[in-house]
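Researcher: Here's my situation. A collaborator sent me these components and asked whether they could plausibly form a single complex. I don't have experimental data yet, so a predicted model of the whole assembly would be a useful starting point for our discussion.
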Amino acid sequence: MRLGLVIDLDTCVGCHACATSCKEWNTSSITAPLTDYDPYGKEPSGVWFNRIRHYEVGDYPNNKTINFPMSCMHCENAECVTVCPTGASYKRPEDGIVLVDQDKCMGCNYCSWACPYGARELDRESGTMKKCTLCVDRLYDEALPVEERKPACVLACPAHARMFGDLDDPQSTVSRAVRDRGGYALMPELNYNPTNHYLPPRTRAPVPTNDLGRPSLARKVKEWVNRVIER
Amino acid sequence: MSKAPKIEDHSKQEIKYSTCYMCACRCGIKVTIEDNRVRFIQGNRNHPINKGVLCAKGSAGIMKQCSPARLRNPLLRRPGTERGAGDFIEISWDEALDMLAKRLAHIRATDPNKLAFFTGRDQMQALTRLWAEQFGTLNWSAHGGFCSVNMAAAGLYMLGHAFWEFGDPDWDRTKYFMLWGVAEDHSSNPFKIGIEKLKSRGGKFVGINPARTGYQAVADEWVPIRPGTDAMLALSMIHVLLSRELFDWDFLVRYTNAPFLVVQTPGQKGDGLIWRDESGAPLVWDLKKEDFVSGLEPHSHPALFGEHTTPDGRTVKTVMSLLAERYLSARFAPENAAKICGVPASTIERLALEVAHIAFKESIEIDVQWTDWAGRKHDKFIGRPVSMHAMRGISAHSNGFQAARAIHLLQILLGTIDCPGGFRAKAPYPKPVPPPGKPAKRARPNTPLDAHPLGFPTAPEDLVIDESGRPLRIDKAYSWEAPIANHGLMHMVITNAVNGDPYKIDTLIFFMANMAWNSSMNTKNIQDMLRDKDENGEYKIPFLVVADAFHSETVHFADLVLPDTTYLERYDAISLLDRPISEPDAICDSIRHPLLDLDRNVRPWQEVLIDLGGRLKLPAFTHADGTPKYSGYKDFIIHYESQPGVGFLAGWRGKDGSQSLRGEPNPDQWERYIENQGFFQYHLPKAMRYFRFANKEYLDFAHEVGFNKSADPIIMELYSEAIQRFRLAGLGLYDGPQPPNAVDRERLVTYFDPLPDFYEPLEQQRIDKNEYPFFAVNQRPMMMYHSWDSQNAWLRQIIAQNYLYMNRVRGESLGIKDGSWVWVESHNGRIRVQAKLIEGCQEDTVWTWNGIGKQSGTWGLKPDAPEATQGFLMNHLISELLPAKEGERRLTNSDPITGQAAWYDLMVKVTPAAPGEEGVWPTFALVSPLPGAEAKPDILQYNTRIRKQG
């Protein structure tokens, strides 16, 4: 099983709901807290598992704005795990989720240097590395309703631009979405084989306009023939 | 296998359901509480509004709950200190309310209009209105006048419903969606859900907006338009439709006033009014009878087009003929519209043809038997699956009322109103066009008003003016300057009160409105006005009361601060009497209830109003023996009835809770709501879900449950006779009040067009466009609600500074680099800000995020917070008055019809700052901390698992 996210760039409106819902779940969760520095001051910052980048492609007026959420890709070949000197970073064999054991982590940052996606963040207060857990403590919590055994970001996403599931199962919703929509993973050339995928914006066929009446410049209002319609 | 993940201990947790208040969307929330702290806020998947999802703001509610900006105690400006010095003392609630009640009792007994009570982005307008009405002051309104009254007024004077709270696109069926102007906060989650539904079905989403921000990012087509020209775009699309006979004949004949005959006697009284029979019924030309018949009778065959002569020799034309003559003129041809809108003619034509194709070639049918207003049975609803939404980008212009009407006219011509796939009404709408009820005119000592302070004028007789034509309201709503100001003009209250124009007041109460900062134009001058004293050394606004939950800039100027609760700490009714949350298929309302114990000496404003109502012995809040009628807000909501059987909450009425919508008060009503996860919904039967303006079953039902006073069909008004009556008054051709002032006469003649039209926004008519070549507008980030969320430790990490965004190529042509400091100057002032060059900006437009800039020291932020040191307000550049004109009194910078604040009419010039000129300007004095203010932590580690931290 390879659990992961599929993110739809056609509908992601860039609202940051995934980021804050992640923050609120995880700040009291298994790698709690997600520390915030100078929260009311000059340079507010903090630990986030999920950040949304916004960028433009193309020149005006043919430009497009892309909202791009990024979090841990839960790579199959997770270099962050390979480089970890303490064994704190590990990949769960049963579902592919990459986690950091907070008791073993010494905050050396090797993993964050190894991660090309910028998915790992050092909590300066705890001195440990923190990252997306895919809300593993929600996934296996039988006290939660079945529908809610999902990452917080997926539950929250108002545009349903985040799907969660098993990318190993070719029949899963996520696998099908990747197949049908030409989903792709980031930086395949690194051979990390990220689990998370992105769906590109859809292209839609033009709306036909050649099946409508032709303009009649000669026609004036007074010449309009009334139709008999019952009120 | 790895070790099992640590699963959360739920033993000390409680799950409660309530309603979000991180913006005006009012989503259902499921809140996990642990030891009186919030563990998790998520969307309630059973809730009709958000169906389980939740936005960035809603998910950051925890940080609002622990904001250091929360007020803690009632505060009094320290006697002997100056207003705006920020020197407060803490007082008890008894002291605060005794002091206020005494003052208010005197006002009420002498001249109730000396109290002005204006409320901000609250969701309890039905209660504040009732309170003001009972007090007896005309001077009440909520914030609609500076928000989006143009949308509401345009819809209610044309369709019977309107954008946002009164209507929604049919997200499940629409195939083509046009979004006009800013909308990210109106509405939030339902729109994100809807856009995804549309796109996953392969529908097309067109965004018409000078900036490619927010939802426009995922639009299939972005139409960068010049701000304030949307009416021309819509009317030019109508030109294209008319020129090809692409409109819904049946819809227009059956459901609108398009076939009504209009008197054409230019220069004479009665010109432009609907021709009526002796009973007042509008007349049409019947094609079968070849005679004039009542347009209200079923089974007639009215001619859509035509010109006739009445028996008394007057020429009459159908509305549709007038409309076609108007919009087929060359003025509206795409080539001409292109010059105004900055949108290519070919695009305008194509958009018109695309909507026509979807409406007429891809129509949809729902097989349901329904009965029309005349009792005729139909076996299907036919839908034209084009939908539209517009919001502040259209509304916040001085031509916004007519622009919103132009968009509605486009929808009506396509027959896409309340049909499958179209723009649907939400209960209690639709209402008659316009809705009944006229604004109250007379205030008397110790006496409630005899009508609501706000209503729907249809003729000059309905204005709230004295015999000499002077305004009777402090905001001049319903005066000749803003005749159908249905939501008041909150943005004018401070200016008018300080100028004593039309009169002086004594006490001004603001609830939840940041009028000393981002909710006022001309911020710096407004702050000066609040400090302004008369020749006797008395403040021109003698007593300013601010009720708010947070330390806003306006709190700083208060004489008395009444601290409110947060949305997780109080009871609230989100009522059908107020700003409804219904869905097109279901009538809905909801509640909030206290999820957390209070840890501060604060009171819900609702409770304070009920308390004051009792102290002041306002009849609705007092027994005959003078004792208070209600023990508090909860008790009030249970028992108050606006008409027999109709109260604030529609669910579980009747003594045993068995009745919906109408029934006796139920003492257990709150408990039933809480059991049902905080909301009520009444699903309309399938036969009542469409064409409700002419759907007999629905109209009868709406009458029975008290939504409408009659079950008559609702006729859409493409042509507004009410507007024409005002124009006739301007022309001196009206038997009734006429404006004494030439300026008002000219405005009525020019702008009160019974058919929607485009005119250049008023301020722009007076500005040299060579000097000030850029349109300047505000947009709203999806993760912030107005000024509210800079106090939110998580949301401000996403955005803590705003920039001036401009088109890259255009900026570079002016020597502006990305990130460089620029001067932005308008007729009203200048600001220095940092520019960002982007592609997603129409080339004649600059814009910024609204409400990010803050005054240093407010909102629980440290003095060096970037919101204060680098963020800015565009408001400094905007005047609440139009540029002065020789021989004319100063006029409000608002829509001349509705009084809607014209925020987005601003024109500016942008020049690079000189080398060394850096930093935002102007800067404002540091606001001193309030007594007992919470410490602002340097490190925040919120974690409900550990008690002492966070």
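Model: Some features of this prediction you could bring to your collaborator: The longest strand of chain A covers residues 51-57. Chain A touches chain B through 91 residues (CB under 8 Å).
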